[in-house]
Amino acid sequence: MKTGKREPNRESEDLILLGAVRDIVGGVSYSTLRRWWLKDPPLFPRPVRLGPRRIAWNRLSILTWCSERPLIARRGYGAAAARDAGASNTVMVAKGGES
After folding, report:
1. Contact status, residue 77 vs residue 71, Cβ threshold 8 Å
2. From 3, 31, 52, 55, which residue has the greatest number of CB atoms within 10 Å?
3. CA 84 from chain center: how many Å?
4. Which pLDDT belongs to residue 31?
5. Contacts of 30 (CB under 8 A, 6+ apart)
6. Dist CA 99 CA 95 (whole Å)
7. Which positions ≥6 away from 67 have C-beta within 8 Å?
8. Cα–Cα dist 67/60, whole Å
9. Averaged over 21-50, what is the pLDDT?
């Protein structure tokens, strides 16, 4: 007999929104993330659509993606993410004014 209570959606517990994803991958922009997941094959995990204007990612797939890229896991730099994903227009700036 159903009690009218909805069972928790286990999958939704593991979803994270864009802001959290950007924090995890080092501030990479939405446009860059979108470009990466639309490539064939995708360079970044594809999001799940929650509504007409809201998407989220599976937390485990994002953490796995990061762990497969040692520079991201160690530093969390967006430039390292772009370099590892094959972006050719990344500019690296040396600290302390060195070039």
Report:
1. yes
2. 55
3. 13
4. 95
5. 18, 22
6. 8
7. 73
8. 10
9. 93
